[in-house]
């Protein structure tokens, strides 16, 4: 190809552009991004950027030196695959190869749209709107005890706000972790002075209050909604690109879409995992770093690279560093390493004596060692795994 057009200038889009240059591509690379800001990293938005301890999180990349053309404040509107043209808010853009990297959008709380004081946390603009809210130390209600809700609650407590988290399920991270593993995390909320209300459904949001379906009225100077994210792919309707049940682009194991010359990577796409035997839709940073290298390699055609990562992510919440590698639904055995009421512990998931996933709380070495063992598929001795004093090693 001579002209590669990448849609979405977030982590996955930017990394695709950089990987193309790293792998020797000398043609035109155009990065199209809807946001007006210089491309930036999202994880600091719920951490340092929110607290104001970092000004911003722009990627430290010299786009000009790499001859990467940035078109910011430009929204992709449609693809015309028959003529290899991308329609955008600033006109048509021809491509030889198109890479979809439009990421995800936060799910909105029905009825809360347009109510003053209701916030989402996905973009730099969102974080900048939330900074003064923290500084003014309002009573804050967070809807959703997922990763974003927990990180936001942590920052808000650090800023001295009174925080209530309402969660429809019976525990935090209900969609992400098994009940027995999420259970010890419930205590983190109380310990940090956050009121966690489980089994709590929001009936409506009014200016200044969140009303639950049991009639409870929670005063709220601000409301932060963190109830998940969906692939930002509505603009692809009618393009002929196959989308899945969550609106995600259904990529193949080479991250190609159902249309020729169109790839998809990052939060907007799912891929079939050979390792775990199911399709994975990963909404984490590492996937937006690794996937682009595969896309660049396949797009340049030098090698045929299959994308089959061990997923990895981290979260910083309530003074703890939480890391996860792998995919536990494939497991048949759970082994605890250490006391989950203490400050540092891990959980190992095995399938047929092989490690398939690991969660580490304050044990980064377990994560590093575990991640390698998951990659390698080495048989393990559960007795060794269960002893937190012994390093994670093969049997
Ligand atoms: P995005 O980062 O969403 O980028 C996509 C870009 O495409 C956006 O800028 C969007 O505006 C643009 N776009 C969308 N549609 C169009 C269009 N039609 N035309 C043009 N442009 C378009 N992961 C972790 O592993 N650890 C963490 O601690 C962590 N913290 C996070 C904290 C926050 C607040 C958030 C929001 C996410 C966090 N994540 C974390 C997840 C991680 O940031 C994402 O997985 C990652 O950003 C995905 O990158 P992406 O490029 O696929 O998507």
Automatic annotation (TrEMBL):
Q: Which SUPFAM superfamilies match?
A: FAD/NAD(P)-binding domain (SSF51905), FAD/NAD-linked reductases, dimerisation (C-terminal) domain (SSF55424)
Q: Spell out the molecular function terms from Gene Ontology.
A: oxidoreductase activity, acting on NAD(P)H
Q: Which PANTHER family match?
A: APOPTOSIS-INDUCING FACTOR 1 (PTHR43557), RIESKE DOMAIN-CONTAINING PROTEIN-RELATED (PTHR43557:SF2)
Segments forming domain FAD/NAD(P)-binding: 3-288
Entry's Gene Ontology cellular component terms = cytoplasm
| Source organism, top-level taxon | Bacteria
Identify this protein by name.
Oxidoreductase
Every Reductase C-terminal domain range: 312-395
Per UniProt, the keywords (alphabetical) are:
FAD, Flavoprotein, Oxidoreductase
Can you name the source organism? Streptomyces mexicanus
Q: Which cofactor does it need?
A: FAD
Against Pfam families, the record matches this protein to: Pyr_redox_2, Reductase_C
Gene3D superfamilies assigned: 3.30.390.30, FAD/NAD(P)-binding domain
